[in-house]
Design a protein that fits this description.
The complex is a heterodimer of chains A (251) and B (531). Chain A is an alpha/beta fold. In chain A, 33% of the residues lie in helices and 17% in strands. Chain A starts with 5 loop residues before the first helix and ends in a 5-residue tail after the last helix. Classes of the chains: A alpha/beta (251), B alpha/beta (531). At the A-B interface, helix 1, helix 6 and helix 7 of A face helix 7 and strand 19 of B.
């Protein structure tokens, strides 16, 4: 993709009339936003983190976003209006009702995507235990497992080496893979903590140990997760892999 | 008064229970003794001392009794009648006809009889697994009596049932039969949740049934490429016998082979077929109906095989990632008869000013020139999914759109899907591509209709294979009526005279006053595929 660099930029700058227009109200309801899953005590809400991520996605990619998040119970039918869902928390939580569990399974089966974010970074903490119990209930024959470093999530927009969040404790993502699709991803380095910010616009939590560089990588991971939720394994297509290897961006 | 102090009348069947822990009682007794001793110490008249000791003993004694927590306990209970459960064998052998009637006809009579004898009963049916209720039909492939008993035991979780009633013809195909054949049946039978009563359905004679149990084709095949059709044959009463198995296509015999059934009456037949034509073909695997065959209906099993020219090559180009884009990609990727090449625009010129360098990105350049000048002819279908060409076709855009129009005229298929980058909004008006679309679009950008609406199935749509999602016309119309509202539509000028409108807007009109086309198709001049 040699031309995308200077050549593409110059052509783009010189062809103002050819710039894509800002999207119209048409299809507004299908713009991407983020749904926080509400499983009661033990789970958390960080709407400002997701607003920040959606602003970044909007400014960096062609994805049409609405910078908003909603909080829904798993048995709420509105779940199907949101292609990207997160579950974050710090403590043990109660399992959803049978109806909620069934709807969540159906949502993921029909193309939905769930990112689970452990904000504690603890090994075997109460949130971690609840997450594993939830996954076992939903996928009794497909346990959580580490995702390989060449998984599409690590190249859906940015080329990433490791999943950094507020913490840098776990060098891998875990997930449940069905066929060529990974509908559920488990992040244990507190992604939302790196993205969260106060009403004054300042980041709420310091990223350790890497500081602002680490936060930048966490934002890139967030963007990749949203792109993966919308394109699935697109970046595994041979046309992409061959070109990236040819340009030395992929080994 | 007594009831007041005791908190109510004491029943005659109860008993006294001291509820306080022992250590508290001992502590209270020690305290009381100490209190009495302290009262006894000191000089005073013997009578006064005696009175004081007696009063202290009575008071402290009462306190000790109170701390010991005396409670009057009465126990009562009642005996619930046990439940009666009926297990109905739902296997195919229950559909065997004897004396002009299916064995299963007797089930309803037996159930009525049981209900009249014991009142309410809970009914389950079983084949290889246990399920609640009476069977919808008697077509389950297996019969596992022992498994049903065990599942029932797990369901009632140790509860003792008043009775278990079993309705079966006794043709068990589970472990019970195998153990019986291995002479282990007397060693240990299934654990019962209650007293068992068995109703034998059908006559105690050996049944003969030759059947095609399953046919596997993989669902599709390619022209001039061999594919396999595998059939499982099951013959009750035909153990170790050789039987002919016939493969038919559209009712005509294709080939035949003989198979030998094993000691359990099972065998498989494998046919290798090389189709010469494309289309959907009704194959069937058949075994003969011998005299005495209990269920002749299961001796033939039909199956439809889709034969395609080759893998269909599809080019999917999307203007931006979205849930729709992901759905279509997954749908096409999961179809083994489709070879999909996707290109999604992940970043536009608008996003070039972002803080990230190209080296950080996994993006490759959109090879539009190669695709629409050279590779185009290798695709069977091109899909523009809400894709606007203008920002990306930076050189020779008119020529590339002409190529695409020529591709359509020469038999290629094009799908243009709506959105804010399609039709007039994608600046296709006045381009060479506009001439081959089934709808006319203006040269100016249109104003889309953003009101949600439910598209209406037209007369053409009711017949066309694209919108005929189920065979029955009424059911098909009902299916479309259940669709969710769409978020809005592109507003085109009108459908071309030689186009067919399959879905139309319920209220909005086009420039001719006809309902606004929502989904339209048109054949190319050469009569090539729809687009």
């Amino acid at each position: 993709m040699s031309g995308v660099t200077r050549r593409g930029a110059l052509l783009g700058a010189g062809a103002g009339l050819l710039l894509p227009r800002a999207s119209r109200a048409f299809g507004e309801a299908t713009r991407v936003d983020i749904c926080e899953l509400d499983l009661g005590a033990g789970t958390l809400s960080r709407p400002n983190a997701w607003k920040r991520l959606l602003y970044e996605v909007k400014g960096t990619t062609s994805v049409e976003c609405e910078a908003r998040s909603v909080r829904l119970k798993p048995d709420d039918d509105a779940l199907f209006e949101h292609p990207f869902t997160v579950l974050l928390g710090s403590g043990g939580f109660a399992m959803p009702s049978d109806a909620g569990l069934e709807q969540l399974e159906r949502y993921l089966q029909y193309g939905g995507f769930l990112v689970v974010d452990d904000t504690t970074g603890d090994e075997n903490g109460p949130f971690d235990q609840s997450v594993r119990q939830l996954v076992e209930r939903m996928y009794p024959t497909r346990p959580l497992g580490p995702l390989s470093s060449d998984h599409s999530i690590f190249r859906s927009f940015f080329l990433l080496r490791e999943p950094l969040g507020r913490l840098d404790r776990f060098p891998y993502l875990e997930g449940v893979t069905a066929g060529s699709n990974t509908p559920l991803v488990y992040m244990r380095n507190d992604l939302s903590g790196a993205l969260d910010r106060g009403d004054d616009g300042r980041s709420t939590h310091p990223c350790v140990p890497g500081g602002e560089n680490q936060r930048r990588e966490a934002i890139k991971l967030g963007i990749n997760l949203i792109l993966y939720a919308l394109t699935s394994n697109y970046k595994k297509d041979q046309a992409h892999v061959r070109q990236l290897m040819k340009e030395g961006r992929l080994e | 008064m007594r009831d007041f102090w005791l908190g109510g009348e004491l029943g005659s069947q109860g008993h006294l229970l001291w509820t306080a822990p022992d250590w508290l009682v001992l502590l209270a007794v020690a305290g009381a003794v100490l209190g009495v001793v302290l009262v006894a110490v000191g000089r005073r008249a013997p009578l006064a001392r005696a009175v004081e000791i007696a009063a202290a003993t009575a008071g402290l004694g009462g306190l000790v009794v109170m701390l010991a927590g005396p409670t009057w306990v009465e126990e009562e209970g009642r005996t619930e009648p046990g439940r009666t459960v009926v297990l109905v064998d739902g296997s195919r052998s229950m559909a065997v006809r004897e004396g002009g009637h299916a064995r299963s006809d007797a089930v309803a009579k037996v159930l009525d009889h049981v209900r009249s004898e014991v009142g309410d009963v809970e009914v389950f049916h079983f084949g290889d697994d246990l399920a609640v209720g009476e069977p919808d039909g008697f077509d389950l492939p297996g019969t596992d009596v022992e498994g049903a008993m065990q599942s029932l035991g797990e369901r009632v979780a140790g509860e003792k049932l008043a009775g278990v009633v079993l309705l079966t013809d006794g043709l068990d195909r589970g472990l019970l039969r195998k153990r019986y054949q291995q002479e282990e049946a007397t060693a240990q039978g299934p654990e019962l949740a209650g007293p068992l009563t068995v109703f034998q359905i059908g006559e105690a004679v050996d049944v003969q049934d030759l059947a095609v149990r399953s046919v596997d084709t993989g669902g599709y095949a390619f022209i001039r490429a061999p594919f396999a059709i595998t059939a499982e044959i099951d013959g009750v009463g035909y153990a170790n016998r050789s039987v002919p198995v016939t493969l038919l296509r559209d009712g005509a015999t294709v080939t035949e082979q003989r198979v030998v059934l094993d000691a359990e009456g099972k065998a498989s037949a494998r046919f290798e077929v090389t189709p010469e034509d494309a289309g959907r073909f009704a194959y069937a695997v058949s075994v003969p109906v011998y005299e005495g065959d209990a269920v002749p209906a299961n001796n033939t099993m039909p199956v439809v095989v889709k034969v395609v020219r080759d893998r269909i090559r599809v080019l999917q180009v999307a203007g931006a990632p979205s849930w729709d884009v992901k759905f279509l990609r997954r749908f096409l990727k999961d179809d083994p008869s489709v070879q999909l090449v996707s290109f999604f625009i992940l970043r536009t010129q608008r996003d070039l000013a972002s803080q990230y360098s190209d080296r950080e990105l996994s993006l490759i350049q959109f090879p539009y020139e190669r695709l629409f000048a050279e590779d185009l002819w290798t695709f069977d279908v091109v899909i523009f999914q809400n894709f606007d060409y203008a920002p990306y076709f930076q050189f020779n855009s008119n020529q590339l759109l002409s190529n695409l129009a020529k591709y359509v005229e020469e038999g290629g298929s094009l799908v243009m899907m709506g959105g804010d980058r399609s039709f007039g909004l994608g600046q296709y008006g006045g381009t060479p591509l506009a001439d081959v679309l089934p709808v006319e679009i203006g040269r100016q950008e249109e104003t889309p209709d953003t009101a949600p609406f439910l598209p209406q199935l037209t007369e053409d749509g009711a017949r066309h294979p694209i919108t005929r999602v189920v065979a029955d016309a009424a059911e098909n119309a009902a299916w479309w009526a259940r669709l969710h509202d769409l978020d809005g539509t592109n507003v085109v000028l009108k459908a071309r005279p030689d186009a067919a409108v399959l879905l139309a807007h319920p209220t909005r009109k086009d420039s001719t006053g006809a309902p606004l086309p929502v989904l339209s198709v048109r054949r190319s001049a050469r009569g090539a595929p729809w687009r």
